Amino acid sequence: MTNGGGVELSALRSLLGRLPPWGLVLVIWAASRLLTTTLLATLFAVAIRLDWNFASYRSDPTFFTFSGSWDSSFYRQIALHGYPTELPTDSAGNVEPNAWAFLPVFPWLVRGVSALTGLDFYVAGVLVATLFGALAALALYRLLAPRVGAHSALWAVALFCFGPLSFILQAAYAESLFLFCVFASLGLMMNRNYLWMIPVAVVAAFTRPGVLALSLALAIMLLLRWSERDRFPWRERRAIVTAGLVIAAAGLAWPLVAGAVTGVHDAYLATELSWWTGFVGRVSFVPLTPWFLMAGTYLGLAGIVLVLVLTAGFGWWLSRRALYPLRLEVVAYSASYGLYLVAVFLPQQSLFRLLLPLAPLLGDPAIARSKPLRRGLLAGSIALQPVAIVLLWFIGYP
């Protein structure tokens, strides 16, 4: 038995060694989905048997509705009925959570798949999300491999696919589609195909908030490259400016759409703030203050200090020479996206999910160089998956 097992393992290694890089990425992705699906299915079965309530609990729960928990019901509403022309309000006239907080590309795409296949929204949503999760893994590898080498890139993909929150890559949520668009856009930026970024980033802009970080990263790269007269021709200058402006316009368009349809100029902002009330009460939005507001509310002065320390630590990490192989584009985007999160997002359960666009930083060569570090990160990520599922499906819904 032992010799037979050794032969089988040797044959498996030989087979994997003959696969092209994209094949290895897909093997990693498939293995990660097998693990995550097993964990989700196990906890779903336990929840049904013990009659636990879970996020977006339904009277006829299935594995696919379980995988379409949290705010996926809003995506379903958009797919089936579109957006409300009147904002829902409470008895005091305050705007309540509604579909305007969610962008249309993912639910429209799922609706198309449902129409073509006859599948239920949640089944089609899981299939679409899983497909784009695989494409995001491939885009991440293609983004990193030419800069840090295949070894580091594959480890980055493995950490991305097996991360504690990697179940979101197959849930009926817009995350995997957004991540694919972001990684593809970054790859185009690094190859200086600025105009080709526009269609991909515009899709991202109407998939999930956060694409403004790409336009800010383009602005940073414009400033950094401006003095490279011989290596930065006017054709590229015009292209990077055009791409930055179009992507910024797309990133700012949805609040205007919401205002035009509902007749309420701040419909989108009021909708987003409606999710804040359970954490900090009803407040006005002031850019760059949400993290301090949340931390100060629950931790006082210590929370303010913690935010400052975290911000300084992130800045230090991005400034390390070890990240140079990732290229300035990845660092510029990571800094821009970090600034975006601090500027507009109230940190709560969804924070860890919203950190996934920073996955290119997993290509840090220091991770791949250290066997204990990379193995520890992978083992820790796998161990945290069931913990995260229990916390986010049964205790604190994101």
From TrEMBL:
<feature type="transmembrane region" description="Helical">
    <location>
        <begin position="22"/>
        <end position="48"/>
    </location>
</feature>
<feature type="transmembrane region" description="Helical">
    <location>
        <begin position="239"/>
        <end position="261"/>
    </location>
</feature>
<keyword id="KW-0337">GPI-anchor biosynthesis</keyword>
<keyword id="KW-0328">Glycosyltransferase</keyword>
<keyword id="KW-0256">Endoplasmic reticulum</keyword>
<dbReference type="GO" id="GO:0006506">
    <property type="term" value="P:GPI anchor biosynthetic process"/>
</dbReference>
<keyword id="KW-0808">Transferase</keyword>
<feature type="transmembrane region" description="Helical">
    <location>
        <begin position="194"/>
        <end position="227"/>
    </location>
</feature>
<feature type="transmembrane region" description="Helical">
    <location>
        <begin position="337"/>
        <end position="356"/>
    </location>
</feature>
<dbReference type="GO" id="GO:0031501">
    <property type="term" value="C:mannosyltransferase complex"/>
</dbReference>
<dbReference type="GO" id="GO:0000009">
    <property type="term" value="F:alpha-1,6-mannosyltransferase activity"/>
</dbReference>
<dbReference type="GO" id="GO:0004376">
    <property type="term" value="F:GPI mannosyltransferase activity"/>
</dbReference>
<dbReference type="GO" id="GO:0016020">
    <property type="term" value="C:membrane"/>
</dbReference>
<feature type="transmembrane region" description="Helical">
    <location>
        <begin position="121"/>
        <end position="141"/>
    </location>
</feature>
<dbReference type="InterPro" id="IPR007315">
    <property type="entry name" value="PIG-V/Gpi18"/>
</dbReference>
<keyword id="KW-0812">Transmembrane</keyword>
<keyword id="KW-0472">Membrane</keyword>
<comment type="pathway">
    <text>Glycolipid biosynthesis; glycosylphosphatidylinositol-anchor biosynthesis.</text>
</comment>
<feature type="transmembrane region" description="Helical">
    <location>
        <begin position="153"/>
        <end position="174"/>
    </location>
</feature>
<keyword id="KW-1133">Transmembrane helix</keyword>
<feature type="transmembrane region" description="Helical">
    <location>
        <begin position="298"/>
        <end position="317"/>
    </location>
</feature>
<feature type="transmembrane region" description="Helical">
    <location>
        <begin position="377"/>
        <end position="396"/>
    </location>
</feature>
<protein>
    <recommendedName>
        <fullName>Glycosyltransferase RgtA/B/C/D-like domain-containing protein</fullName>
    </recommendedName>
</protein>
